[in-house]
Design a protein that fits this description.
The chain is α/β, with parallel strands linked by helices and 280 residues long. It has two domains: 7-78 and 178-261, Periplasmic binding protein-like II (D-Maltodextrin-Binding Protein, domain 2, 3-Layer(aba) Sandwich), CATH 3.40.190; 84-174, D-Maltodextrin-Binding Protein, domain 2 (3-Layer(aba) Sandwich). Helix content is 44%, strand content 22%. It has helices at residues 18-21, 38-47, 57-62, 108-120, 134-140, 148-157, 166-174, 187-192, 194-213, 216-226, 230-239, 246-261; strands at residues 7-12, 31-36, 52-56, 67-77, 84-88, 99-103, 126-130, 143-147, 162-165, 178-186. Strands 2-1-3-10-4 form a five-stranded mixed sheet. The longest helix is centred in the C-terminal third of the chain and has 20 residues, at 194-213.
Length: 280
């Protein structure tokens, strides 16, 4: 590999992805890890600045002709997710929001909210994109969407606001799980370096399995970096699913169909997976 370019691997810079990446060790000086928010990872992978990355499920769907999913890796839930929240000044059922501020750090959840607003509530609000600052967002809009660590902190502190967990609402609407993030490889990288990508895939699977079976390190890190009770973080990580199981795949396929029907995706999405011997 000395004559090859460095393989860059993108990690989501939110606690919800730590069970995949925390403690990850990769042999070889031709590999490097880059931690960013999902929207930046989405851009970097599409631009070829990364070869493998965790990314928003929506961004995978947009670029699925150039990408392959790494099997068995995701961030998803069946029901509550506890880090994707819609905050509003008034209840949505009785006082529908006319304007919603969307976090600029995600793609999947932004479009999940649009799907739920239109298909579940029958609403068509105006949307604006903003940096994830709840106070500033609510100065400009009736409701605000936050994800990841900012959403968790707002959930802890803003008891004056109405709060909807989007994972819970999606499950109520569809009966399905929801896949918020996947791990994907560029097709050109998979073709050029199948052995290296296979090694990275196995390392990620093993790392995830180890963290899921023993949450103590990621729980301790969360308490140290974000505060909160150990019991919250243990429940939080335990409620997420990281293995892209059939229920999560069903939810991802349904999400993509809704997004296409509502004009949020230009084309149908066919899920394609990396295999070291054969890419499907």
């Amino acid at each position: 590999m000395a004559d090859r370019q460095k393989i860059s691997i993108g990690q989501i810079d939110y606690a919800n992805a730590w069970p995949i990446f925390h403690g990850l060790r990769l042999d070889g000086d031709y590999m490097e890890s880059v931690a960013r928010v999902p929207s930046e990872l989405n851009r970097m992978l599409a631009a070829g600045e990364l070869q493998v990355s965790a990314m928003s499920s929506y961004a995978y769907a947009v670029n699925s002709d150039k990408l392959l999913l790494l099997p068995g890796l995701s961030v998803g839930s069946v029901g509550r997710v506890n880090s994707l929240f819609f905050f509003s000044k008034k209840p949505v059922d009785t006082d529908p929001p006319e304007r919603i501020a969307l976090t600029s750090t995600s793609a999947t959840t932004v479009n999940l909210l649009k799907i739920l607003m239109e298909s579940y509530y029958g609403l068509h609000p105006e949307y604006i994109s903003m940096e994830p600052s709840l106070d500033r967002m609510l100065e400009q809009a009736d409701g605000a969407l936050l994800i990841g660590d900012p959403a968790i902190h707002a959930f802890w502190t803003r008891k004056d606001l109405h709060c909807i967990d989007l994972g819970e609402l999606w499950h109520r609407f569809t009966g399905r799980g929801m896949t918020y993030a996947v791990v994907a490889v560029r097709r050109d990288a998979a073709e050029a370096w199948p052995d290296a990508i296979g090694y990275i895939h196995r390392a990620l699977l093993d790392n995830m399995a180890g963290n899921v079976s023993n949450l103590d390190p990621v729980v301790a890190r969360a308490c140290r970096e974000h505060g909160g009770e150990e019991s919250f973080w243990r429940s939080y990580f335990g409620g997420l699913q990281y293995d892209l199981n059939p229920r999560l795949l069903e939810g991802l396929e349904l999400y993509c169909r809704y997004a296409k029907e509502l004009g949020l995706l230009e084309r149908d999405t066919e899920l394609a997976f990396f295999r070291k011997d054969k890419n499907l």
